[in-house]
Amino acid sequence: MRTGLRLALCQINATVGDLTGNANRIREGIDGARRAGAELVLFPELALTGYPPEDLLLREHFLTDTGAQLHELASAAKGIVAIVGFPERIPGAIRGPAPGSPGPVTAVVHNSAAVLSGGAVQSVYRKVHLPNYGVFDEQRYFKPGEESGVVIEVGGHRVGLTICEDLWVAGPPASSEAAAGASLIVNISASPYHAGKGFEREQLFGQRARETGAHVAFCAMVGGQDELVFDGHSFVLDPTGETIARAAQFEEDLLVCDIALVAPGARAGSKEAKPAGSREGGSALSSSAARAGSSLPPTQPPQPLRAPIPSVEQEVYEALLLGLRDYVHKNGFDQVVLGLSGGIDSALVACLAADALGSERVNVAIMPSPYSSSATQQDARALAQALGAHAHELPIERAMDAYMQTLHSDFEGLHEDLTEENLQARIRGNLLMALSNKFGWLVLTTGNKSEMSVGYTTLYGDLAGGFAVIKDVPKTLVYRLARWRNVAVAAVRGRVPAPIPDSIVERPPSAELRENQTDQDSLPPYDVLDRILHGYIELDRSREQLIAEGLPVRDVERATRLVDRAEYKRRQSPPGIKITERAFGRDRRMPITNAYQRDR
User: Is 45 among the residues known to form the active site?
Assistant: First the structure.
């Protein structure tokens, strides 16, 4: 019996609903894997439709078109076995509400993996564990498969099939497949990113490898889809849980790996589990050769490849770049526009936009009011020039005067307060939307997670826009990313000036909507605030628990009260990129009308 298998992991950037485009990407991946001598190639979960297709799965014609596209795609799978994720409609089967209750009757649909070989669909595996937490809503659409799983034979080896959550859970189907003789468990996935998620997956799947005594191969989706980013980071583990190959993060990749499989019944880690002269687990080929179309004969072992795991700052920055780039491209925008204030948040968003799209596609509006300092205006212009973005000067003082004149009779005798501050933000929002309407530019908002959490934002003002790039980035991380960006540019491009002026990074943050205003007039210090918000929002800590952790009582009570009151604002904010474990929107769904006040 042969003791080796050449495996390819093809992480693609699928677009939800683009059946033809996704099928073409899969077809190219099959061709590249075959040229590299692979016997088995994996594609991500729901690769044919993109993930998540959401209520497209309730449309009969969408499911029918997907099925037709799959069978057409199968004709490309010759001389290789391909595993492709798709939604499988069961002909003639329907599911609906409980008897006597209202509701739609829909088709029975499985989240499935098709086994393509010999120009046809040879077998189908159906996902067993359907996640229904956080960003996931799979029980709304899919019916689970059988826990016994599916084992196929490739090159004389038994291979067990799983999809995403199936391997996050211990036991069947992976344990059933290993008991049936599978020496390789493959997992096709669409696993949304948050900071550190790639390392978390490797650690968890390493435990599954040790439990089953089998190699584990994980093939992931890559790309941005609305709020979600898929980071790729596909990998292969040996039966001890050691990573023997790792694909790139945040880009399409074809990872080809030779693995030394354990013969059925052999003990994982024993001498008979490895061919003579082989490495411990195998070796891998970088994707660049396959993408360039070069051929790798099956007899020539590829070189080892483990893509490095980046720093948190680099990883998050790359995630934001990918999420922004794909949102702009996949939704048909050519250029973007944002308000550039001379503050740290808009500076970071401007850098992200220029890096993701190219500076020629970035427009910035500098919109000073009487309260805008000359220093912040100068910093905004310097940043725009350093990035090469198109700057638009739109002073708002005359518009403010016109608003106040219109409201004079109603406001007469009343002191100025937050109302006049918010008017400035709303004027700026109107101007940005005017540029958007006139030129078709996508408006990028610049609010961070800390501000979004406590409602330190203005409805129809700085919340107005199409995409909230740093919506899930805490303020303290904004500073870290800005500093990293300045250093990273110099490291990559040589001696070039850092684009973000030091004064932006060092200046106390301010909305500049009144004289001598700073954020800390209204909020706790950001290092304290972000600790409170992380505990309250992402970890569901109570006020009592936060105070017991040593956080200041007054700041805890103030911050948590502001979070609860701001829910109605967050519901009206644009979508933004998820980079934390619990983002607003898909992850955290709190009622606006909410009288629960246990800890007050």
Answer: yes
Report the C-alpha gap between 382 and 342 in whole angstroms.
Answer: 9
Residue 317 and residue 304 share a domain: no
Catalytic: 127? yes
Q: Distance between CA 458 and CA 125 in Å, rounded?
A: 49
End-to-end CA distance of the chain: 69
pLDDT at 278: 31
Is residue 336 within 8 A of residue 363, CB to CB? The reply is yes
Residue 255 and residue 218 in contact, taking contact as beta carbons nearer than 8 Å = no
Q: What is the 3-state secondary structure (H, E, C) of 59-106?
A: CHHHHHHHHHHHHHHHCCCCCCEEEEEEEEEEEEEEECCCCCCCCCCE
Q: Rounded distance, CA 281 to CA 330, Å?
A: 39
Q: According to DSSP H, which parts of 192-343 are helical?
A: 197-212, 287-291, 312-330
pLDDT band at 303 (very low <50, low <70, confident <90, very high): very low
Amino acid 304: pLDDT: 44
Beta bridge partners of 51: none
The catalytic residue among 10, 164, 219, 257 is: 164
- Could you give the angle at which helices 418-439 and 397-411 cross, rounded to 10 degrees? 130
Q: How far apart are CA 292 and CA 593, in angstroms?
A: 56
The active-site residue out of 10, 39, 88, 127 is: 127
CA dihedral 266, 270, 275, 277 (to 10 degrees): 180
- pLDDT tens digits, one per residue of 155-187: 999 999 999 999 999 999 999 999 999 999 999
pTM confidence score: 0.88
In sequence order, the β-bridge partners of residue 150 are 161
Number of domains in the chain: 2
Determine how β-strand 305-306 pairs with β-strand 4-11: unpaired
**What is the chain's length?**
600
Is 438 catalytic? The answer is no
Domain-terminating residue out of 456, 487, 520: 520
- Whether residue 31 is found in the same domain as residue 49: yes
Residue percentage of the chain with pLDDT more than 70: 85
- Which structural domain, as residue segments, surrounds residue 76? 4-95+102-308
Instruction: Please name which of 513, 519, 489 lies closest in space to residue 345, comparing C-alpha atoms.
Output: 519
Q: Residue 14 in 3-state DSSP?
A: coil
Q: Which residue among 45, 165, 315, 421 is the active-site one?
A: 45
d(CA 106, CA 240): 44
pLDDT of residue 276: 26
Single residue among 465, 494, 520 that ends a domain in this structure: 520
Burial track 397-421 (b if 16+ CB lie within 10 A, e otherwise): eebbeebeeeeeeeeeeeeeeeebb
Q: Rounded to a whole number, what is the largest CA-CA distance in the chain?
A: 92
